Amino acid sequence: DVPSALRELKLNKPRMSYLDILLGVSKRMSLVKVYRVEGLQSHGETNPYIIIKCENSKVRTPPQKVTGTAVFNTQAVFYKRKVDSPIIVQVWHNAFIDRFLGEVR
Question: pTM of this prediction?
Answer without folding.
Answer: 0.73
